[in-house]
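Regression test case RT-17, inverse folding.

Input:
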């Protein structure tokens, strides 16, 4: 084998190796570009997720304020209802006392009390 033949063989081997390296570089570049796109997409998704989380937080804070207002209103209504129930109980006791007093007066006077009106029968 001559010197030129050896040189040609070595050049062909180098060219083949350069072709392999170029292919690897193209593949590596494509992977890097794909990774860059993936990272960018993840960043966009993360921003969207954070926006949703902030919106949920605001909604929860608003619901919390509404719930607090409803709790105060319920407490006020409970207090009023308690006062109404106590008032009705007092009125019931007063009516019972009046009925007892009336019965005693009618008995003392010897008067038979009138019959109580009957509720009409329901169909």
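Golden output:
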């Amino acid at each position: 084998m001559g010197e030129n033949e050896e040189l040609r063989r070595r050049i062909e081997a180098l060219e083949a190796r350069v072709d392999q390296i170029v292919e690897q570089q193209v593949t590596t570049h494509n992977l890097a570009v794909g990774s860059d796109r993936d990272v960018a997409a993840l960043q966009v998704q993360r921003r969207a997720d954070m926006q949703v989380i902030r919106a949920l937080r605001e909604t929860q804070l608003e619901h919390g304020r509404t719930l607090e207002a409803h709790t105060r209103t319920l407490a006020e209504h409970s207090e009023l209802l308690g006062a109404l129930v106590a008032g009705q109980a007092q009125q019931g006791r007063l009516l019972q006392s009046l009925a007892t007093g009336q019965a005693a007066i009618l008995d003392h006077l010897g008067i038979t009390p009138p019959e109580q009106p009957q509720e009409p029968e329901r169909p």
